[in-house]
């Protein structure tokens, strides 16, 4: 019997192979190796990639390590295999190879000895014995959700047939984004415009709808399109590294007419970000169109490489704004009319539509959920939809609706205007009473109204230390408890920012 093909070794001598059994416990050595990894790579990288790397056993000079997922295994093999082996040998010079496998899918059966005639492979090689690199890449990508329809062989996600320009409802908050998307989709082949087009918005506001609509329109012109979520881009790149086919991967990716990347804020890893940056540069320089979506502007993607952020910001950046009440009513009416084609007795009066549009303010997905609840009530009870039944049906959506996404920049602008100082004053080193109190209030509001950490808030306030932010937050919290006028003032600022 053989060990699973998910187990593979990295040899200090240049050979990769599988050895026999015969355990030699080495938990203390492995603990020292992990300490070396943490010290050399830093806590963030160690926690992300090595926190769940465990020692299984050491057999005949081979240290068998395991991780819980294939993606984690592929990443470590592609980026850190040599380093792990070097540090292991520094602690135990009898270890000549490191083998990384996936837990719960590996046996401990002995493997046959390597044939003498088999040529050695370089240390960085991750090809499987007896399997071609291309075959291994296919097996890796096969573990991902299977693409449907016209999905690309790069593992691209399929385009949703429902998400077209025709089904997109235009309002004041999304008109500019729709116009830019339509212009990009209709631009003549080879004449990229607004490159890249960068759309950003909160959840459920229509940015993904526009991405799919662009893809459908361009593909209908016979041009080559690939739509990728950030995780599919990362998986495809790691798979190509694993299979030693990264050059072919890059060439295929850069040979298309339109690249669409959704949720770009999730792209992680230095090497993957570098490749993403190279892909952007290559496509833009060759006149190919790129469309990107994220949940925030390029400048706010602090985990993304600065050069990539700069490249993304160099195109047209458009925010898809929050849905206003008129647009919410239009979305509700359109959805109700579509359902009436299937359920002719489904009637929702204008007063109910107005109530739901006024009450559900978070995003389009909540509006969809509200209509589905009204339909369920009508079809399951057989009674009409009244204001009372609508209120009962959507109660959970009202209680759990998401607050408006508040930006630190908006907080700074509002507080500065309210206290008759400039935003630059708030960001400056000035310590006069007229500036310090507004600055502390702005820091306090940034802490309670955003998900930003104290260090992030400090950076947004002129590069201040997180302890300064913490001091400001505590001081305003104490002042609010003692000064009712200040408390009312801060509550008013909160409401103004959240409306």
UniProtKB/TrEMBL annotation:
Residues 407-476 form the Chromosomal replication initiator DnaA C-terminal domain. Residues 1-111 are annotated as: Domain I, interacts with DnaA modulators. It comes from Microvirga aerophila. Residues 379-499 are annotated as: Domain IV, binds dsDNA. This is Chromosomal replication initiator protein DnaA. The gene is dnaA. The keyword Disulfide bond does not apply. Keywords: ATP-binding, Cytoplasm, DNA replication, DNA-binding, Lipid-binding, Nucleotide-binding. Domain I is involved in oligomerization and binding regulators, domain II is flexibile and of varying length in different bacteria, domain III forms the AAA+ region, while domain IV binds dsDNA. One of its GO terms (cellular component) is plasma membrane.
């Amino acid at each position: 019997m053989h060990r699973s093909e998910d187990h593979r070794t990295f040899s200090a001598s240049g050979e990769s192979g599988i050895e026999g059994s015969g355990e030699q416990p080495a938990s203390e050595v492995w603990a020292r190796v992990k300490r070396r990894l943490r010290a050399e790579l830093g806590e963030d990288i160690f926690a992300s990639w090595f926190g769940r790397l465990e020692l299984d056993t050491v057999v005949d000079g081979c240290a068998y390590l395991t991780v819980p997922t294939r993606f984690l295994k592929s990443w470590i093999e592609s980026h850190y295999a040599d380093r792990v082996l070097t540090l292991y040998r520094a602690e135990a010079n009898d270890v000549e190879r490191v083998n990384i496998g996936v837990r719960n899918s590996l046996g401990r059966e002995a493997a046959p000895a390597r044939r003498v005639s088999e040529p050695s492979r370089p240390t960085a090689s991750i090809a499987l014995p007896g399997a071609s690199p291309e075959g291994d890449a296919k097996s890796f990508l096969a573990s991902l959700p299977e693409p449907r329809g016209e999905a690309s062989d790069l593992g691209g996600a399929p385009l949703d047939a429902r998400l077209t320009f025709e089904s997109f409802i235009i309002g004041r908050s999304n008109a500019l984004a729709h116009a830019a998307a339509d212009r990009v989709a209709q631009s003549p082949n080879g004449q990229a415009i607004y490159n890249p087009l960068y759309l950003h918005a909160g959840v459920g506001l229509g940015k993904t709808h526009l991405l799919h609509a662009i893809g459908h329109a361009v593909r209908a012109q016979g041009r080559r399109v690939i739509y990728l979520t950030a995780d599919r881009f990362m998986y495809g790149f790691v798979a190509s590294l694993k299979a030693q086919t990264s050059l072919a991967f890059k060439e295929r990716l850069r040979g298309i007419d339109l690249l669409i990347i959704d949720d770009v804020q999730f792209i992680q890893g230095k090497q993957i970000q570098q490749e993403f940056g190279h892909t952007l540069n290559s496509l833009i320089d060759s006149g190919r169109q790129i469309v990107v979506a994220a949940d925030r502007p390029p400048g706010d993607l602090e985990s993304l490489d600065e050069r990539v952020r700069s490249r993304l910001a160099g195109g047209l950046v458009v925010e898809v704004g929050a849905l206003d009440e008129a647009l919410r009513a239009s979305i509700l009416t359109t959805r109700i009319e579509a359902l009436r084609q299937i359920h002719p007795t489904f009637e929702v009066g204008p007063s109910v539509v107005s109530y739901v549009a006024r009450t559900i303010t978070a995003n389009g997905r909540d509006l969809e959920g509200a209509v589905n609840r009204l339909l369920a009530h009508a079809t399951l009870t057989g009674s009409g939809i009244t204001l009372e039944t609508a209120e009962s049906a959507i109660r959970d959506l009202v209680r759990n609706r998401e607050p408006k996404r508040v930006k630190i920049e908006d907080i700074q602008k509002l507080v500065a205007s309210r206290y008759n100082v400039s935003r630059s004053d708030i960001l400056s080193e000035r310590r006069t009473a007229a500036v310090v109190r507004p600055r502390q209030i702005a820091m306090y509001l940034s802490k309670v109204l955003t998900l930003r950490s104290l260090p992030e808030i400090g950076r947004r306030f002129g590069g201040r230390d997180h302890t300064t932010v913490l001091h400001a937050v505590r001081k305003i919290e104490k002042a609010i408890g003692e000064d009712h006028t200040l408390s009312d003032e801060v509550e008013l600022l909160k409401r103004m920012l959240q409306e």
